[in-house]
């Protein structure tokens, strides 16, 4: 662990190293190997402040538009601004997520439901 470089996204909780030997049927001598078990925890404050909280603020702003009077011009402006902010925010989230078509991330499903 002397070469370990601190990472801003992960904490290493514990590292176990076990030396074992295995004897294969083809050979007489044992073959030693090391089994490393690394227990890690993701630091989630980055995602909380950069993805979750802005998403919640945009949700609150979209709900505030229902509180404004119907004949108010600011209601339309706020609605269009929030829609544009959601679109840009979804683009930013899509850049950070791995490109795969196997599943849609939960934050993507949540954002899509908010736009409906």
TrEMBL record:
Keyword Plastid on entry: no
Main location: membrane
Membrane-spanning ranges: 45-70, 76-94
Keyword tags: Membrane, Transmembrane, Transmembrane helix
SUPFAM superfamilies to which the protein is assigned, alphabetical: Neurotransmitter-gated ion-channel transmembrane pore, Nicotinic receptor ligand binding domain-like
InterPro entries: Neur_chan_lig-bd_sf, Neur_channel, Neuro-gated_channel_TM_sf, Neuro_actylchol_rec, Neurotrans-gated_channel_TM
Keyword Transmembrane: yes
Annotated Neurotransmitter-gated ion-channel transmembrane domain residues: 51-110
Bilayer disposition of the protein: Multi-pass membrane protein
Compartments in which it is found: Membrane
Gene Ontology MF terms in the entry: extracellular ligand-gated monoatomic ion channel activity; transmembrane signaling receptor activity
GO CC term (a single one): membrane
PANTHER family for this protein: NEUROTRANSMITTER GATED ION CHANNEL
Name of the protein: Neurotransmitter-gated ion-channel transmembrane domain-containing protein
